[in-house]
Predict the 3D structure of the following.
Amino acid sequence: MTDRSEPAGPLPLSTLTEDETMLRGEVRQFAEKRVRPLVGQMDQEAQIPRDLIAALFELGVMGVEIPETHGGAGASLFMACLAVEELARVDASVAIVADVQNTLVNNCILRWGNEEQKGRYFPKLASEWVGAYALSEAGAGSDAFALRCRAVEEGDHYELTGQKLWVTNAAEAELFVVLATVDPSKGYKGITAFLVERGFPGFRVGKKEDKLGIRASSTCELVLEGCRVPKANVLGEVGKGYKVAIETLNEGRIGIAAQMVGVAQGAFDQALRYSREREQFGKPIGDFQAVQFQLAELATEIEPSQLLTHNAARLRDSDAPFIKEAAMCKLFASRSAEHVTSRAVEVFGGYGFTREYPVEKYFRDQKIGQIYEGTTNMQLMAIAKQIFGKL
Ligand SMILES: Cc1cc2nc3c(=O)[nH]c(=O)nc-3n(C[C@H](O)[C@H](O)[C@H](O)COP(=O)(O)OP(=O)(O)OC[C@H]3O[C@@H](n4cnc5c(N)ncnc54)[C@H](O)[C@@H]3O)c2cc1C
């Protein structure tokens, strides 16, 4: 007879460690208690209260991968993604604050920053400073390296001039990773990453976008007018900014997939609850097999979405190749979030179409998953490149 006390082989793909289970529980509780009551207000006011952001720092989800020696949790991208997923289950805007902080800003400093930069910025990013990541411009979206923001060397500093667009967290952030070119004639090889503080002369946050979804998350323009950035704030090497950008976004995509898994799960939770409460023909609509099947279909979409996302994060954390898997999980999770949230609205019937119930917000919030950190076509391009190899 098989001894069941020891696992017979590799653990199930969905296995979490004790620390991961604990973090998930803590973030879930936080999201229900602290975030849920504010969801409608934040959406209406298009703003996240400062004290809620401070609470995210206290919870420890803003510096998940920052080493403990610098005040962070010294944990993994997987744990950061778990936190994003749980927050997004309640509110996708709050989730993206933590996502950008961990998967883009902290991540690129961790990977490209020198010890002095880590010592200077990590304690702040783990405890009070929100970070933002500024690559896109008006004419440089999918073609991100067509950026025009210029960095001109002037003695001990660079002067940055140009405009950045669509910068998530910009209204709250104190530190911005800004991509600019030191020499447009060099094409992408002129692109350089800079750590820009909000208080640097010549820097200002411009217009805030009025959006369809994730309305409480700030998305703003940045205006750089000869912004003085010390040379000590070049992140990585001059001319290697394209590598910083590509490699950071490869990992960032896993975070967006986690956000989409959370959004889909949150909408599903609402639909399941409503199906047990709403009565028609003398019984809860959830008693009708057609409604049960509808929810069974949705659950069957969320599960693979989560498995793909968790697996991509695990691959990255174990230093295995993950670029194809990261693009796949974002593509799949954003598509399934669109379908799941749309069907969840239908479970609510007419009420699902009103702002009286929370489900329509999930439907609005999911759409961004197919756009930022690379549109659906860009994910397909990344996957195709991995499949076909570089031609
Ligand atoms: C809410 C929000 C938050 C954002 N946050 C940030 C942020 O924090 N930092 C940041 O740097 N950027 C951010 N972005 C920018 C985002 O990453 C870009 O919007 C995205 O990369 C798409 O670029 P674009 O909007 O210029 O669209 P375009 O590149 O103009 O794309 C338009 C359409 O054309 C398609 N397309 C373009 N080129 C090709 C091609 N070669 N082949 C096939 N199809 C193609 C696209 O798939 C898309 O469907 C944010 C955007 C939004 C809306």
About this structure: The pocket of flavin-adenine dinucleotide is lined by residues 100, 133-136, 141-142, 166-168, 211, 219, 368, 371-375, 377-378 (CB under 6 Å). The mean pLDDT is 97.
